[in-house]
Amino acid sequence: MDYVIREIKKEEYVLLNDFLYEAIYIPDGVEPPPKSIINCPELQEYVFEFGKRKDDRALVAEVQGNVVGAIWVRIMNDYGHIDNDTPSLAMSVFQKYRGQGIGTSLLQQLLLMEKSFGYSKISLSVQKNNYAVKMYKKAGFLVVDENSEEYIMTATL
């Protein structure tokens, strides 16, 4: 599949809401939550006024002119927060486009970009059963903390 990874455009920031919803891990056999769940404060932390903080950065994956995936970082008090100097990562790819290397490409390019901005590491939170755990480990993320449901992982840049 042909795709392009590029920086998000300001007018596309609104798309992060859709990708935030897509990033919610839903185990097999579990009913997806209503889309309104992204309005809760702990999830809005990922997207509220995106682009207004100096550490806000995002890349998107585009297929035939359509944005099909997004990855973004900001320093925020989210599930993956480890300190006030480390950006936390969020990402998702629309279901139809998963398993084709798009997520891996988004992740690799974001890590390079954040390194070029002088960051030494990136953090994230991921459900232990999420298939993306393998991708994160392959990209160099290590588990630094965990609870019963999630891993907190970091990658050194």
What does this 3D model show about the protein?
The protein is an alpha+beta fold and 157 residues long. The chain contains four helices and seven strands, in the order βααβββαβαββ. Strands 1-2-3-4 form a four-stranded antiparallel β-sheet, with helices on both faces. Strand 2 and strand 3 form a beta hairpin.
* Broad structural category: alpha+beta
Gyration radius, in Å:
15 Å
According to DSSP, the number of beta strands is 7
Helices, by number, come to: 4
- What portion of residues is helical? 10-25%
Taking the sheet with the most strands, its summary is: 4 strands, antiparallel
Beta-strand content: 25-35%
Shape: globular
Highlighted features:
single chain, alpha+beta, three-stranded antiparallel sheet, 7 strands
Structure described in brief:
This protein is an alpha+beta fold and 157 residues long.
List the helices and strands and how they pair.
Layout: E1 4-7, H1 15-22, H2 41-44, E2 57-63, E3 66-74, E4 88-93, H3 102-116, E5 121-127, H4 132-138, E6 142-146, E7 150-156
Antiparallel strand pairs: 1-2, 2-3, 3-4, 5-7, 6-7
